[in-house]
Amino acid sequence: MSAMNRKLIQTLAETISKHVKHFNKTEVECLIREFNVLLGEQTMPGKAVTGLDRIQFRSILHNIFKMTDDMIMDGVFRAFDKDNDCFVSMKEWVEGLSVFLRGTLDEHIKYCFDVYDLNGDNSLAREEMFPMLKNSLIRQPTEEDPDEGIKDLVDITLKKMDHDHDGKLSFSDFEKSVKEENLLLEAFGTCLPDTTSIEAFEQRVFQEQLYQ
Amino acid sequence: MGLSLTRAAQWTMASSGTGKLEFTPMNTFLLKEILHFVEQFSSQHPQEAEHVFEEPFHWSTTLVASDFKTDYDISDSDVQSHEKDCEGHPLLQLSPPTVYVRSFSQLSKLVHLADDKKLEEVQACLEENRDPVVKILGPSFVSTLEKEDAHTDVLSLVDKVKAKDQGKDPEVKVKLFLLLQNMDNQLLSKCLKEVSGQDSLDPTAVKNEVELLKKFCSEGERRVLKLVRYTSDYIFSNGCRSPLWRQVHGEICYLVIEPCDTETLYITCSTAGVFLNGGIKQEEEESGYEQTSDMYKDLVTLLKSRSPHFAENINKQDFGVQELPSTQKIQHVELVDVEEQGQPQRSYEQQEKNVHEKARQQHTLNKAGGEKKYEPCPRWKNLGLMSPCGKAEENKPSKSSGEEKSGEIQENLGPGAKSKMKAEFSVSSFPGRLSSQKIKAEEKKPSKSSGEEKSGEIQKRKLGSGAKSKMKAEFSVSSLPGRLSSQKIKTPAGSMPVEAFSESSSESEEEEEQPERRPESNTDLPSEYWQIQKLVKYLKGGDQTATVLTLCAMMDFNLMQETCQLAIRDVGGLEVLINLLDTDEVKCKIGSLKILRKISHNVQIRRTIVDMGGLQSIVKILDSPVKDLKALAAETVANVARFRRARTTVRQYGGIKKLVKLLDCVPNLADLTANQEKDVEVARCGALALWSCSKSTKNKEAIRKAGGIPLLGRLLKSPHENMLIPVVGTLQECASEESYRIAIQQLDMIKDLVENLSSDNDELQMHCASAIFKCAEDKQTRDLVRKYSGLQPLVLLLSKSDNKQLLAAATGAIWKCSISMENVAKFQEYKALETLVRLLTDQPEEVLINVVGALGEFALIPANKANIRKCGGIKSLVNLLTGTNQALLVNVTKAVGACATDMDNMAIIDQLDGVRLVWSLLKNPCADVQSSAAWALCPCIKNAKDAGEMVRSLVGGLELIVNLLKSTNNEVLASICAAIAKIAKDKENLAVLTDHGVVPLLAKLTNTTDDRLRRHLAEAVGHCCMWGSNRASFGDAGAVAPLVRYLKSKDEAVHQSTAMALYQLSKNPNNCIAMHEKGVVKSLIHFMGSDDETLQEAAAGCVRNIRLLALANRNALLFR
C-alpha cells in the first residue's frame, strides 16, 4: 500500500471514527481496508466508487456471517444503506458494522427493527411479518391452508408484542417487548451474527490486517 | 388402460348400470393422458395402430358427418372410412349419433378431427366401452395374457398365445397388449405422482400388521392362522429386519406364515408391498430373495388370496376373539419405534368409487377426527413417557370440517409429525413398480426443497431421539360402511391396523380401549391444553425463528400452574424441550431452559425430565460459554435436583464440578460491569444448584473435592441476599461434615456468618444460625463467634418466636456456643437466660431441645442456677421430664442435674417430685437417656434432704440401679457407678444394694480400661466396702487385683478414687495380701507424696494397713 493510501485511509478513519461508538481509530482503519478489499480492485479511494452493491454485500453476509435467509439479508442491506442509494458506502459500512458487531441492546433493537421493516414505514405489520416467517414452519402438505401455522404464529407474536393494540408493531412496541424478553430481539429472523462469526471476523480483520 | 380405468378413474354409480366418469381433476388428468396416448399412437406404433379390434368401440359422439374430411365416404349423415379391414368392413363408421371405430389409427384420426371436443369424445368412448382392452384384443386373448405374470417376456407370451390358437397376428396383438399395459402403468404412476401419493409400506405398518396377525394365531378351531413369525429377531434402527443389502431393495422383513389350510408361506414385506419369496426361513440366507408371486399391498390381502380359510375367517373376527393378552404385544413394542409411528397401511378394496360415499366419509372422518384428535398417544402414556406423537395434527380436521374435498388430498392424519397423503385411488397388486427407488429418494429429501412436491419428505429436526421421518401414503378406506375406520384412522400408531379388514372391528387391545374411553374426558381439558398442544406442534415443525417465537409465547402461560405443567408434558412438549437442549442454537436453548426451570417446580415433571435423560443435557450446558445459558441451566438443575436420583445423576455426569466452577466470581466489587454482573448471576444460580445437590452426602464430599468451599467463602462476602441465601444454605447443609467445619473455621467464614445474623432476611438469618449451630461444636469457632460479637444477635433472634425454624436454629446456636463458659458469661449480659426460660413452654420440640440444652450449659455457672430458679425455670424443666423425645430428655436431665447442685433448687425439685421422675427415666430404653438420668441423680441424691429416705421410698429404685450395672454401655456404667457411690453413703441403702447383689456386679466390671468408668467404679467400690462383709466379698470376687492396675492410669481422678477404694479394701487382711502381691505398695508410696491431700491420706492409710498386717504377721511368727 502506498503511503498516500495509508494517509488517506487514516484521515478517513479519523472522520468516520468520530461518529462511530464502538471502534477506535485503528479498528476503523482496518475496517476501511477490509472494505476496500471486498470492493475489489478499486482500492484508490479517489475513484468514483460508491460502495458495495447489494450482491456483494449479500455474499459477504453469506460467506462471512453465515446468513442464509434472502429476505433478512435484504433487510440487513437496507439497514446498512441508510441513504438508500443501493450502495453501502465506506461510512455506512463502518457505522453499520459498529452496531452489527458490537452494538448495545438499544442499538440492536433499532437495527433489527429496521431490518424487519420491509416497507420502511416504521411499523411492522402482519404483511411484513408473514413473508419473513413463511418458511419457518415445516409445511404440512395435508393442511388445507399450508400457511395456517404461519398465520397463527404471526397472530401469537403480534398479540404478544403489540402493546398499544393497533394491530401492528411500532418501534416502541418492539422495543418494549425486546426489553421484556431479550429472545424477541431477532424475532422474525436471525439478522445478527453469532459470537463465533463475530470473533472470527474481528480476529481476521483487526489482528491480521495490522500486519499488512 | 384397463387397469387404470377400472382402478384409477372415478366412476359414478348410476342406477342404470352404466357409469359415467365423474368430473374430477383426477379423471381429467387421466383423460388427458389417454388422449395423448391415442394421439401419439399411430405415429409411434404404426403397425399396432393398424390392428383391427376384435370388437369395435362405439359411443355416442358429437361429431357429425360434416366434420369428416378426406379419407372418408360421406353419404348424408353417415360416414364411412376408406380404410377397411380384410373383410371389407370400414374401420370407422358413423351413423349418428353412434360411431364405430375399429382401429387405433382411426381412433387417432377421429380424435384429431374432434378438435376441441377431443376430451368429451374420449370420455364418451371410455364410458361406453368399459373394457377397451378386451374389445381390442378379444376376451380369450386377454385372459390368457393376464394370467401371465410380468416376468414373462414377449416371445414366450407369443408362444403361449399361439399355443392357444388365438387367431391371426399374435405378435402384433401381444405387442399391443404390452403397450396398453405399459400405458396403464405409466398412467398409474403419473397419477400417483400427480397426487404425490406414495405407496409405501413402512416398517411400522408391517410390524403392526404382523402383530395383528399374530393375534389370530391362537390354538383351537377359531384360529385363523397357525403361526406367524419373523425370520430374524434383530431389528435395525430404522425398524427393518432385513439385512442391509436387501434393504436397498426396499425390503423390510421376512415372515414365515403357516395358514390353516395351505402350505407354509414365506413372505417378504417391502416398501412396495408384500410378496412371496423363494423360501427364506431364517435370517442370513443367501438366496431365496426373489419374488415368486404377485405384489400384494399388504399381508392380509396376500393371505386372503392364498388361504381361503383365512379369507373366510378373517371376516368373522370380532372383539371377543381377539382378547389376547397385551403382553404379546409388549414383546414387540420396542423403543425403536418411538420415532417411527407410521400409520399402518390401510386396506383398499377396489370398488367403483362412490362420490357420495366419499363425501359422507369425509364428514364422518372429520367428525371422528373431532372427537379423537386431541388424545395423546396412549402407548406412551402407558409407559409414562410422552412421545412426540401429540395429536396436534388432528387440529386440522376440525378446522376444515366444513370443507368438501373433491380433490385427492385429504387431511393429515395420524400421530407424530409425519405427513400423510391420502390418495383417492388404491393401488392394487399391479406388477409394475412404483419404483421403490423413488420412494427412498424422496424419503431422504429435506422438507424445504420439497415445496411443491407434496410428497416431499418432512424432516423433523429433532423428533424423539434420533428420529427419522417418513412419508406415508394413506390410501383412503374406500368402500367402508362409513363407520369404524373413520374412527380408527385417527387412532394413534399404537393401535392396530384394523382397517386392514374393512368388515372386522378393532380388537380389544388395551390401547385401543383408551381411544374409546377418551372422548368423555376430552371435554374437561382447559383451553390452555389445546393452546399448548398447538404451540408444541409449532416447536416441532419450526426453524430457529419460529421456535423462539413459540417458546416466547409458551412462556406467557402460567407455567407454575400444575395444569399447564402437566399439559406440556402430556402433549409431548417435554421431550421437544429437552431435545432443543441438545441443539446448537443458543436462543432455542435459552427459551427452552426458561420454560423448563419453571415447570420443573412440579414433582412429576422433575422425575420425567430425569427419566428422559434431560438432566444430562442440562448438565452439559453448564459448560457453555454463554453466561445466560449457564445461569439458566444451573437454576433448572436446582429445581430438578430435589430428589435423590436426580442428585446422583448430577454427580455422575460431572455436574458438581461444573457447578463449582460457576461459583468463581468476586461478588462484592464496587462497580460491576455488565459482564461481571452476569458472572455474579451465574454464581448465584450455581449456588442454588449446589444447595439442592448438597443434600446428598456424597455430593457434599464432591463439592469439597472440587474446591467449592473457598469459592463459597468468597461469595459469602456478597452484599446481596439472594446470593447469600443459597451460599449459606449450602454451607449449613454441608456443615454436618467435619471437614467442612474445619474449613469454615480456617477460612474465616465465621465472621461473615456472624455478620449476616443481623440481616433483615429471616431465611438468611436462619441459615446463618444453623451454620453456626453446626460449627460451634468446635471450641475455636465458639471463640470466634464471641470475638465477632455474634452472641448478641443470636439472643436478639430469640425474639422472633413466630418463625419456629429460625427459633430452633438460633437456640441451637446459643446452646452450642454456651459450651464455652466465656460465652455463657457474655450471654448473661444480654439476658439470654431469662428469654430462654420463657421459651420453655409452648414451643415445638426442636426448639425445646435446644433451649434446654442451652439452659443446661448455662446452669453450670452457680449464679445461673439461682437465676433459673428465680425465673421459675425449675418447674418448667421438671415438667419436661415426662416427655418422650429422647434428645429432649437427655438435655432436660442434664439441665436438671446441673440445677440440682444448688440446694434451693434441689428443694424445689424435690417438692415437684423431680427425683422420682428422673429415676424413672432409668427405665428408658435409650442408653443416652439412662446415663444422663444417672448423672443427674448424683447431685440429687447428694443434695436432697433426707436423701436416704427419699431413695428408699422409690419403689424398685435400687433394684433398677443395680440392674443397670449389667448394661454394656460404658457411659451408662460410669454414671450408674457414680450414682451408686452417692447412694451407698446411706447405710441402709447400701444394705439394700448389697442385697441386690451390687458387689459381684461391680467386681465384674473392674476389668475395664476406660478411665472414666474406672474412676467411678473405684469410687463405688470404695463406698460399698463400708457394709458388712462387702470387703471380703470384693476380695473373693477378685476385684482387688484389677483395682491395683488402675493406679497405673494417667488420670489423677482415677488415682484418687482407686486409692480410696484400696484403703477401704485394705481393712480386710486377705485384700491386703492380694494387693501386696500385686505390688501396690510401691505406687502407693509414690502417691503418698502427691499434692492431693485426699490421695495422700488414702494412700497412706492403705499402706499403713498393709504394714500393720505385715507386722502382725511377723510378730505372730516371732512370738510363736
> Biggest interface, which chains?
A-B, 29 and 49 residues
Classify the secondary structure makeup of chain B into a structural class: mainly alpha
Helical/strand content category of chain A: mainly alpha
Please provide the count of β strands of chain B: 11
**Largest sheet descriptor of chain B:** 5 strands, antiparallel
- Alpha plus pi helix count of chain A: 10
Keywords (chain A): Calcium, Metal-binding, Repeat
InterPro entries (chain A): EF-hand-dom_pair (IPR011992), EF_Hand_1_Ca_BS (IPR018247), EF_hand_dom (IPR002048), Recoverin (IPR028846)
Protein name (chain A): EF-hand domain-containing protein
Domain EF-hand (chain A): 68-103, 104-139, 149-184
Structure description:
The complex is a heterodimer of chains A (212) and B (1120). Chain A is 60% helix and 2% strand. Chain A is an all-alpha fold. Chain A has 2 domains: 118 residues, EF-hand (Recoverin, domain 1); 80 residues, Orthogonal Bundle (Recoverin, domain 1). Chain A has a two-stranded antiparallel ribbon with strand order 1-2. Chain A is elongated. Chain B has 1120 residues and is mainly alpha-helical. Among the domains of chain B are: 194 residues, no CATH class; 122 residues, copper amine oxidase-like fold (2-Layer Sandwich); 173 residues, Leucine-rich Repeat Variant, CATH 1.25.10.10. Helices cover 58% and strands 5% of the residues of chain B. Chain B has 62 helices and 11 strands. In chain B, strands 1-5-4-3-2 form a 5-stranded antiparallel β-sheet. Chain B has a 4-stranded antiparallel β-sheet with strand order 6-7-8-9, with helices on one face. About 19% of the residues of chain B have low confidence.
